[in-house]
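Ticket #4471: complex job returned nothing on first submit. Input attached below:
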Amino acid sequence: MNKSNLPPSRFELEVPNKLKTEEMTLSMGPQHPSTHGVLQIILKTDGEIIDSADPRIGYLHRCFEKHAENVTWHQVIPYTDRLDYIASMNNNLGYVIGLERMMKLEVNERAEHLRVIVAELNRIASHLIALGTYGLDIGAFTPFLYTFRDRERILDLFEEICGARLLYNYIWVGGVAYDALPGWRDKVLQFCDYFLPKIKEYNDLLTFNKIFIDRTANVGVIPAELAINYGMSGPGLRGSGVPYDLRKIDPYSIYDRFEFDICTGRGEMGTVGDCWDRYWVRVAEMYESVKIIRQACEAMPDGDAKETVPRNIKVPAGEYYMHTESPRGELGYYIISDGGKTANRIKVRSPAYSNLSILSSIAPGVMIADLVAIIGSLDIVLGEIDR
Amino acid sequence: MNAREIHDQIKEKFPEAILEFNDTVQQPYLKIAPQPFYNVCQFLRDDADLDFDYLMCLSGVDYGDLLGTVYHFYSMKHTHKIILKVEVPRENPAIPSICDLWRTADWHEREVYDLFGIVFLNHPDLRRLLLPEDWEGYPLRKDYVTPEFFKGIPVLHSEMKSETNEQK
Amino acid sequence: MKDYFRNIYQAIVTILIGMGVTFRHLFVHAVTIQYPHVKRELPARSRQKLFVNIDDCIGCFQCARACPVDCIMIETVKAGKDEDLGETSNGQKKRLHVVKFDIDMAKCCYCADCVFPCPTECIYMTPDYEFATYDRNSLLLHFAKYSPEQVKALHERQEKEALAKAQAAKIKAAAGTKKPESET
Amino acid sequence: MEPIIKVFFNFIPALADLPNWLAVTLIGVVLAVGTFLYIAVFTLFGVWLERKISAHMQDRLGPMEVGGWHGWAQTIADTIKLLIKEDIVPEKSDRFLYKFAPYVVFTAVMAAFAVIPWSKKFIPANLNVGLLYIISISSLGVIGILMGGWASNNKWSLYGAMRSAAQMVSYEIPVSLSLISVILITGTLDMQEIVYRQSGTLFSWNIFHYFPFAFLAFIIYFIASLAEANRTPFDLPEAESELVAGFHTEYSGMRWAFFMLSEYANMFVVSAISAVVFFGGWQAPFGFLNFIPGPIWFLGKALILVFVQMWIRWTLPRLRVDQLMYTAWKVLTPFSFALVLFIAFWKVL
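Support reply: We reran it on our side without changes. The output follows.
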């Protein structure tokens, strides 16, 4: 990254007696414990303080967009699973709704409710990973295990409904792959009851721990304008105080029927837009997701979820940009069809991709330990960034 | 503000810039000539009535005989959207970079350069992003042929080739 | 100064709260499952190893076409005129010898897209997940029941038939071209 | 003559026939080997305990397979693995320093065992400046860490070493000051003497007898000793989420095991010092419990403190470098100074 392009470093170190000092170039990753995957960051450091950070991505590039042009419309869905592998349901949902809107297809009520329930469960699962690994980045091991313990319960629910624990391929064009078994809804509600007290436990252990607050508050502050300019979205943008949640702003599926709040960072522990705010938005969103799940479970009609799934999908020629709110932010599919059996072009606007690009702008002047905290608070998934 | 009004605003300011306007499709778009594109974008961002401060998506597209980029803009304040398209010829494709207006464009333009070979003028740091720096060719172009070897490493495994289902 | 003491106070209190949580968990029952000794019952829909009931397969290629990673390889030979291959369990007539039905589990992405289009419901995913091996080739599952000799014979017959057909067509064509001549 | 030598002479009368220098050397060798074995066994047990405690705090089970009962032999298996593992020396490292560093760290920790009183009679070297000796010897280990981090020729290791040097030097001060406050109370530097001064019941132990002051001194000492032993929340030299593995990133096999040994030995030493200085050493809490031998009391007290160290590790996140320094210089040091001052006044009055 061209240095003149960056904002001036916040630390200008004074060197007495014109002592000759050197910048140290440090390659953080791609096999570093806290880069959340195969991300490489070329750091230039002055002691513990970072002068510049240049993220290098592409180590996990799997040619999703090229694949998508070569397989049929339906066969893309398993590939979308593998984008953001922590929140596959949300990936499926965005792509499928995009196609349905192009085809002007109606989905029956039960399938819509099931979609919302699984997407929100998946959001909780994803936020749990974000919380746990964030604790790990900061140095606390135990919250990680607790969040994974609770995530397992969500995965059990998913396994019961669609047979897979990570890559679901569940939401299909026109409906969902499997209808929920009787009793599944009660299990989801049971999970909600089980889960809410657990959030308090995470808060006791991690969120309000003084050391954790010291490590994250006032660290990696992203002002709202900068966040918008960099195209941040999701908890990253909401942490900066911008109430941008596509579930409210541009409702898809049946999100307009449910009552929930957009959580934004308020700078309770430090400045608006610091790491703690981004973290706290995730915690608060889990409460909102539970709210949505409860409402959807109450409202879910009986019937068959599968009835309108078409066998052979033909998407009319045209193009559509479908954006949904994935746990990481605005997940966009720009789909171009020429009316054939395969897509002409599918571009994925992955949220973590834009979120990560802000790193080189906020990293100068922070410490290495803070950089780890910042990366963790952005909650990146390299599968989605590299595609 | 809907697409028609946005179109009128731009038309008023840049009468020459708009090549095509289509609001019969699901998501209306404007086709802009490459030369005034940067100024149009600056206008979109800075005008108080338009105030497009959020670049949602920037994608490269191969239209067959033309290459193009598609920009999806959104305004946080006015909550309206617009899509701009720029098309350039296959040979020496160049589009002005809007990286200094929306920093989102920085990586997205690098990605488009990486996969389509469209050069973004005035981009501060136009390198390959997803592929290795010494990769040859632009894989997302429709006429891209997968190379047999990359630096002596076979790209497609010979077994894989024979095993793919012929019946398909 | 007030902040200084408040910080110390908060640090002590929150650390003690956190230590309380971990101490309570010291006596909570572990959630670990001792895997090889204790095995979790997987739900019926669990998507693990693929299985093909080859007796029911009619060789329609629907599954191979649906597969996004091309891990299903099928080869068929047409049955002879007087041959009866029987019926599938849901009453469809089999008209093709499925001489090869291979699934490469190493390539499989467990999406279950192949399961739905099958007209006879003969391909499905089973909850068997313990099929790790030392050799990648043993992940290539063969479901066809034909021995190599049988396959060879069937192929030869097919070739012969094709040849005969081609010859017949040739003769027919020759006769067709000759006919008008003779008529004139 | 040293009491420990007397013990040996009483035990093996033949020793008295040997020339004095030979007998003393022999006894010294035996003691050193014994200490090393003790450290090895304690580390095996400590690692296993840490795994089990962390597992149960995290709703897991921890090692369960090796050896049968709760995986008790897991650490033995690991040790064998480490012993037969290749000893990798990076090509561009400073070979001598690289190979030497683990032993420096280990020796520094092991030397501290010399003045720890296990019972009325058993103390390897009854120095009359025991506490001073410990304070000085325990800060030697940082040299080894610096050597290892520097010699590895790895940037992460170097960061770990620099952090470690800064941290150890800073936390020396609160450690010394909190111990000095106890010296003021008891009026002696002799470890055995300190234990004798606390004889009686539970309430004659320093921590309860001089309640608010000694308790505060103990808290300060305990926090600072966590930093001395590089334990969470002060494990910055080896912060694995930031520095991969800190100063021992490049080490493998037995050399790495020596760092591990010294870490656990250090945990024990700082706990043992707390036990001696604040909790009455090998003394039973009540007179009627005297039938239980001293070493068991001493070990029990030390192990409880080791447990607390582990408990803290599996609860807390890690501090940042500047916060670490803040804690040392702006919180612990002023408090310990004030404490020394208070106790000094109180003593004078």
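The CA atoms of residues 13 and 56 of chain C lie 68 Å apart. Closing as resolved unless it happens again.
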